[in-house]
Design brief:
It is a single chain. Helix content is about 70%, strand content about 0%. By secondary structure, the protein is mainly α.
Length: about 55
């Protein structure tokens, strides 16, 4: 649970970096990624918050 809380706190750093990466790569158009960096960062954040709220799953 503590790990999930710490990972969720890292979104403060990770999200702006992901947005800049999306701007530089035109939302992933310049690389072969299926999802944008911002989308991946938000999904990871949601998963970590879910783990904090319901750690049994």
């Amino acid at each position: 649970m503590l790990t999930s809380i710490l990972k969720s706190a890292l979104v403060v750093v990770e999200a702006p970096v992901a947005v800049v990466a999306d701007v530089v790569t035109l939302g992933g158009a310049l690389n072969d990624k299926d999802k944008s960096y911002t989308e991946e960062a938000v999904e990871a954040f949601v998963k970590n918050v879910s783990d904090v709220i319901e750690p049994d799953k």
